[in-house]
Write a structure and sequence with these properties.
The chain is an all-alpha fold. It has helices at 2-28, 33-47, 53-65, 70-109, 119-143, 147-162, 168-183, 201-224, 228-242, 250-258, 266-278, 286-318, 322-327, 329-358, 362-376, 382-396. Helices cover 78% and strands 0% of the residues. The termini are far apart. The model has no long low-confidence stretch (mean pLDDT 87).
Length: 399
C-alpha cells in the first residue's frame, strides 16, 4: 500500500511544484513574450535545472515554429515534461491566472484609471531589458559561441530587425535550420539528453486532429447557430490559431475581429491593450479583457479559453515527437543552426521593441545597467529586480 502510494504522492508533489513555480512567474513576468523566455530561463533552467540549456533552446525553437503564444507554449511544454498532461495545465493556469484576474479588474476600472503612462510601468519595461539581456548573454555563450554559430545569430538578429513581417521569424528559423543541416554535418550526438515526455502519441495525434477540426468547423457552426458567444469563440480561436511572431502580432488580428463588428469600440480596444502591457503574464490575456467587455464574466471565460486552446493543442500534439526529431543526427545539425538563430532573434527583440520603448533617457540606461548587474553578478532573484525596477521607474518619472 505504501509502495503504491509513493508514485501518486510524487506526482501530486510535482504537480503542485509546477503550479507554484508557474504562479510565481505569472506574478512577476513583465515585459512581453520575449522577456518571458528570459524569466523562464532563469527560473526553470538556471535555478531549478528542470531542463538543460540545449533542450530549452530546442523547445523554444519548436514553439517558435508553432502558431500561438510561444512563451505560454514553452511553459506548457516544461510543465508537461515535468508532471504530465496535468502539469501542462497547471503551468498554464499558474502563469496565466494572475494576468486574467488583473485584466478583469482593469475591465471594471478602465474608465476611472489611466495606467498606460505611469512611471512604475516604464520601470517594468526597463526590467524586461535587463532580463532579456541576461538571457541573451547566457544562451549566447552556449549556443552561439563559435564563429559559425555566432555568424548565424548575428545574421538572424539583423534580418529580424530589418524585415518586420508576420512570418519573418518562422522563415529565419527555417533558413537557419537548412544552413545547420548542411554546415554542421559532423555535429556530435553524445551530449543529447533524452527528455521524458509523459504524453502518449495517440493523445498527441488526437490533439492535432481536434485543432484542425475546430479550425475548419467553428466558422460553419457559428454561421448555423447565431450565438454571440459561439461567434466570439470562433473569432478568438481563429486568431489564436494563426498568430506567428509573438504576442504583439495579436493586436491587428483581434482589432479586425472585434471593432468592425461593434463588439467593442476602438477606444475601449486600445485602452485594454495598454492595460495588457501593464500586467505580468502572456499578452494573449488581452482576449480575457475583450471577452469581459463583450459579455462580462462569461465572455471573459470564453475569450480566454478560445484564444489559448489552439496553442495548447499544438504543443501537446508536438511534444511526443520531439525526442525522435532531436535524436536524428540531421535534425541535430539543423537545430545547431536553429538554436543560434533563436539567440539572434532574442538579441533583435532586446533592441526592438524592448530597448526602443524602454531606454529613452540617460536615467533609463543607468537603471538598466544597475538592474543587469544585480541580476547577473549579485544573483538577485527576478522578483526583486521587478520590485526595484518598478520603484525606481516611479522615482525617475518625476526627474
Amino acid at each position: 500500500m505504501d509502495t503504491a502510494a509513493k508514485p501518486q504522492q510524487s506526482k501530486q508533489k510535482a504537480l503542485l511544484e509546477v503550479f507554484l513555480v508557474s504562479t510565481k512567474l505569472g506574478l512577476t513576468s513583465f515585459g512581453g513574450p520575449i522577456a518571458h523566455l528570459g524569466y523562464f530561463h532563469n527560473e526553470y533552467i538556471q535555478k531549478r535545472k528542470w531542463m538543460d540549456e540545449k533542450s530549452y533552446a530546442d523547445l523554444v525553437a519548436l514553439c517558435q515554429f508553432l502558431p500561438g503564444p510561444a512563451s505560454s507554449q514553452v511553459g506548457v511544454g516544461i510543465g508537461t515534461i515535468r508532471a504530465g498532461l496535468l502539469g501542462g495545465v497547471a503551468a498554464w493556469l499558474g502563469f496565466t491566472l494572475p494576468s486574467i484576474i488583473l485584466l478583469l479588474l482593469f475591465s471594471l476600472l478602465m474608465k476611472a484609471m489611466d495606467v498606460s503612462s505611469t512611471g512604475w510601468i516604464h520601470g517594468l519595461k526597463i526590467v524586461a531589458v535587463a532580463i532579456v539581456a541576461q538571457a541573451v548573454l547566457s544562451m549566447g555563450k552556449k549556443l552561439a559561441s563559435d564563429k559559425s554559430t555566432a555568424s548565424i545569430a548575428i545574421a538572424a538578429a539583423s534580418v529580424t530587425l530589418l524585415w518586420q513581417a508576420v512570418y519573418s521569424q518562422v522563415l529565419i528559423i527555417v533558413l537557419a535550420g537548412l544552413i545547420g543541416l548542411f554546415a554542421f554535418k559532423t555535429v556530435s550526438n553524445q551530449d543529447y539528453s533524452i527528455i521524458q515526455v509523459r504524453v502518449h502519441r495517440s493523445v498527441a495525434i488526437l490533439c492535432l486532429i481536434l485543432y484542425a477540426l475546430l479550425l475548419l468547423l467553428l466558422p460553419i457552426f457559428s454561421g448555423l447557430w447565431h450565438s454571440q458567444l459561439l461567434s466570439l469563440f470562433d473569432s478568438f480561436y481563429r486568431v489564436g490559431s494563426l498568430v506567428f511572431g509573438g504576442g504583439h502580432v495579436i493586436l491587428p488580428l483581434l482589432e479586425r475581429e472585434v471593432v468592425p463588428q461593434g463588439w467593442v469600440s476602438k477606444e475601449v480596444f486600445l485602452a485594454g491593450y495598454g492595460a495588457t502591457q501593464a500586467v505580468p503574464g502572456p499578452l494573449f490575456t488581452f482576449g480575457t479583457y475583450l471577452g469581459a467587455m463583450f459579455d462580462g464574466f462569461r465572455g471573459a471565460v470564453v475569450g480566454t479559453l478560445a484564444i489559448f486552446l489552439p496553442a495548447y493543442l499544438l504543443i501537446i500534439g508536438a511534444l511526443p515527437f520531439w525526442n525522435s526529431l532531436r535524436a536524428n543526427v540531421k535534425i541535430q545539425s539543423a537545430f545547431v543552426g536553429i538554436n543560434a538563430a533563436v539567440v539572434g532573434i532574442l538579441l533583435a527583440a532586446l533592441y526592438n521593441p524592448l530597448w526602443t520603448t524602454a531606454i529613452i533617457r540617460p536615467y533609463d540606461f543607468a537603471l538598466v545597467i544597475v538592474l543587469f548587474g544585480l541580476l547577473v553578478f549579485w544573483k538577485l532573484p527576478p522578483w526583486c529586480i521587478v520590485l526595484l525596477g518598478a520603484v525606481a521607474g516611479e522615482a525617475l518619472y518625476y526627474l
